[in-house]
Amino acid sequence: MKEILDFLELDRAQMEDAFLKNDFIGRTTSSYFAVIDKTVTDRLQVTEILEETELLSEYQAVLFGESIGEGGSMDVAAVMRHPQMRVYALVVKKSLLEWTGSFHEMLQEFNTYEFLCRVAAETAVYGIPCVEDAAEEFGDDIMREEKASVARTFAYIARLHMVRLQAEGILDKVFSRLIDYMVELDCSQEFSDVMGVMLDSFVEFEKLARNTAPYLIFVGDTTCYSVPKRFAAALSDALADLGQAVITTDGRHGEWQTGEDSNIAIPPILKGVVGWQMKILERDIFRRMACPKYQFWFDNPIYFNDMFNDLPKEYYILSQDVDYADYIKRYYGTKNAIQFPPAGEDAGYAGNQDRPLDVVFIGSYRNQWDVEGFTDEERKFFEYMKCHPDVNFEEGYRQYLEARTNIGVSYDNDQIQNGLESVKNACRAVTSYYRDAVIETLIAAGINVHVYGDTWQNFHSEHEAFLSRHPEVSVEESLEVFGHAKIGLNIMTWHKAGMTERIANIMLSGAVCLSDESSYLREHYTDGKEMLLFRLSELSTLPQKVLGLLREEDLRRQMAEKAYERARKEHTWRKRAMEFLALK
After folding, report:
1. Domain range spanning residue 548?
2. What average pLDDT does the chain have?
3. Residue 534: closest CA among 369, 359, 397, 365
4. pLDDT at residue 137 above 60?
5. What would you measure as the largest C-alpha separation in the chain, in angstroms?
6. How far is residue 426's CA from residue 385's CA, in Å, rounded to a whole number?
7. What is the pLDDT of residue 288?
8. C-alpha distances in angstroms, 180 versus 75, 118, 265, 384, 531?
9. Same-domain status, 371 and 401
10. 221 inside domain
11. Is the dihedral of CA 324, 300, 433, 453 positive or negative?
């Protein structure tokens, strides 16, 4: 029982602290959790009863309480017919929360009861009646603000389950019992007022319902080796583990149905919608939704000028590069564009000592820097950026224009944006040029580099004896490759202020990350301590760094261990999900 059930023991006041309970849910790793009123019972009593009855083998939720009637199997109607109940202990299977959500953080009174109603609406709750003389009543003389809070909770419960109760033909009976209880608590007028608002205004009800509503997460397609799809799965799993309700479009979590492509079936109330650089989130159906929309963004926005126009204020652009976020803010006016890097996965290879691969690079070869078909402007900008590889494209283009004109001439945003649009091919080309140059620099120094995918058949060099080509690998297989490498190479796709999932995966695999530097990496890491950094403008220094580390086995292991500890604390999807929930 200890392995599958974790307890949170609270006093009576704490039993209604939704934040305290949700924090516990986010921390526990047990299959079941129990919230118990320690003024009445304790974990030993609850454990003994559960072991004797073996209820958890049949039920996903067990209630210990006073004034719950005969108990036994209870659906939502049975729970709602006993609003006066006192919950002594509530045991719930944690995975159930991906359907129900956690405790309601906008309800100050009776939120344990409200949570129980949601659970009972999803699955049968087994009720165990307790002695009815162990607790005081809620109180006959409650304060006015408490009356309003109590009335708000019960009006919300009634409105949330109204359609179901009406369909079952028992709405009047249940509603009558709620009204009787409001009279008992001298809250009938407050209840009537709030109930009227809940029925008249869907917006007011939606504000409350969104707190425990599901996130709708669009699962990416197979582009980029299915990396966005992997991100979606990792984030949705992490959110569910933190007690959030989740629906994914691939059926991994929740129930998702689609109609015709032009009429996607969207649940009526959502806590948020999450996409991964997806055009679909720009459709009017999503723009009109009142909930926040979160678009994870990885590539340079100069390649996607049609994606950011007139975004509503509820949109968040979560970019792995702070320069990209700033660009979107500056050129499109999207206030909620922020840096929010992807995370990595710990596949359990950190302690692996079997590392026969010296340097591993998992990424495509892009033979895009042949300037044969370039315009004169593209060719000139390509040559300029080859000589200035340590600045981003926006700043590089501004410098390029200023170098061609009189000193003191400035350029407005439209000129910069339109100019970048005209030289996008040059931007892609110089990125490919330096990916080629990094690999060539390493193998020319006699360093063994392992690359993956058929695209590397197009790479040609006088030093190919030091280049080992392997078949393409999936994301999961790439984690194993990193787990058998001494050094994992990351070459930024010109992310001059970014942090990529490849870096996180390398660190979490127990390999040392070798990467061209970015302002993010310089700010957060120390070259030679947690990773090796190099500058594209100083590639001649790269072989010495790598050869030195390959010779110093103890140093390499120390760096890998430090990197792993940092990444485990800062760059897992669980950590990123916690940061995601904190976004305002």
Report:
1. 357-572
2. 92
3. 359
4. no
5. 89
6. 9
7. 79
8. 20, 21, 39, 79, 66
9. yes
10. no
11. positive
